[in-house]
Design goal:
The protein is of the alpha/beta class and about 375 residues long. It has ten helices and 16 strands. Strands 3-2-1-4-5-9-14 form a seven-stranded parallel beta sheet, sandwiched between helices. Helix 1 crosses helix 7 and helix 6 runs parallel beside helix 8.
Length: about 375
């Protein structure tokens, strides 16, 4: 099988390229190598690469020639820094996906795997003792400023218990990136119905591992913390550090993509299936910060919650700041059972092992400063 991987030079895309090649398939890549992200072509990008933008029909047509399936990873990532990011998220993620899908239809390519995200759910799953499963409203900025971070029942205001999010949970995007990912899922569903193709959307949870970009506000939190440690700066943990997430290693994510590519032929024509890609081993952001700092060799002895302040004698410990971002959600922890049942995917790299590796794994250098 010949597979096109868009975003092939990126963090996740480059690992997918390796996994698909190691499985014996032929791979072509499409990547814009935009200077805002890349310092030219990465040295670890060993693939037949078409340099072009996924929004450019000419580049997309060139990349699709002779391809059997597409693994679509090209995207603008992160929550966004400010309002000026909104047009770019919509343009790259939504328009780019539309251009790709239209071209796939013309080329007669009917198999698609694409990167979605946990952010499509908004907040995770919550239960109220009185009202059962509820969907909390977006958190009140006044509560956040006062250090009240936990969502409350929208009906009675009572505290909530968290639960696992399944793929059948309602979609509730709460920032520009999330909205663009929901739009990608809808576009893929429409493409499948119109062409009779098959598509799998993989809702990645917090992906980390080698080749993450360093020193950029669009990086995942693991890379941001790792960059802080390398620079001798205490990682700054927002809120109270109690936000629960699922941190999944990038090699597991690449393997999930390979399994999804293999499953496309068994899906009904004209169908889209979406799956959580998660480790099934949730941790708080604070726990992750401390585990990474400890593995990096800079954390001192843990106290209570395992979080402290910047220490002395060269030891650096994470600092809980109480800061917050309005686009963030409190808890989002997934059920991995759908991918296990349908794709045969379960994460293999445990949290402690992955953080120990990530503490010294090579990161991508930041893009060159633009003048």
């Amino acid at each position: 099988m010949r597979v096109l991987v868009t975003g092939a030079a990126g963090f996740i895309g480059s690992h997918i390229v390796s996994a698909v090649q190691e499985a014996g398939h032929e791979v072509r890549g499409l990547d814009s190598l935009t200077p805002a992200v890349h310092r030219g072509r990465p040295s670890d990008c060993d693939v037949d690469l078409v340099v072009g933008d996924v929004r450019d029909p000419v580049a997309v047509d060139e990349a699709l020639a002779g391809v059997d399936a597409v693994c679509h990873q090209a995207a603008m990532v992160g929550l966004g820094v400010d309002l000026s990011d909104l047009p770019l998220y919509s343009d790259v993620n939504v328009t780019g996906t539309a251009v790709l899908l239209e071209a796939m239809g013309r080329h007669g390519i009917g198999r698609l795997v694409f990167a979605s995200s946990m952010v499509v759910y908004g907040e995770g799953a919550y239960d109220c003792a009185a009202h059962g499963r509820v969907r909390p409203s977006p958190r009140d900025p006044a509560d956040l400023a006062a250090g009240v971070f936990e969502p409350r029942c929208p009906s009675c205001g009572a505290p909530l218990d968290t639960s696992l999010v399944g793929e059948d949970a309602p979609l509730d995007p709460r920032n520009a990136y999330a909205m663009s990912k929901v739009a990608q899922e809808h576009l893929a569903a429409s493409w499948a119905r119109l062409t009779g193709g098959t598509a799998v959307g993989l809702r990645y949870h917090n992906v980390y591992g080698p080749r993450m970009p360093r020193d950029t506000p669009y990086s995942g939190v693991a890379a941001i913390f790792r960059s802080c440690l390398e620079n001798g700066v205490a990682p700054r943990v927002f809120e109270d550090g109690g936000q629960r997430r699922d941190f999944v290693h990038v090699r597991d994510v690449a393997r999930a993509n390979l399994l999804a590519l293999g499953a496309l032929g068994g899906l009904p024509e004209g169908s889209l299936r979406c799956y959580n890609v998660a480790s099934g081993e949730p941790h708080t952001v604070g726990e992750m910060a401390f585990a990474l700092a400890e593995a990096f060799g800079t954390a001192g002895s843990a106290s209570g919650s395992g979080l402290g302040t910047a220490g002395t004698g060269g030891v650096i410990e994470p600092v809980v700041t109480g800061e917050f971002r309005l686009g963030d959600v409190r808890h989002i922890v997934a059920s991995p059972e759908g991918a296990a049942h349908d794709l045969g995917f379960r994460a293999q790299i445990r949290f402690a092992e992955g953080m120990a590796e990530f503490a010294s794994a090579p990161l991508r250098e930041p893009a060159l400063a633009q003048t």
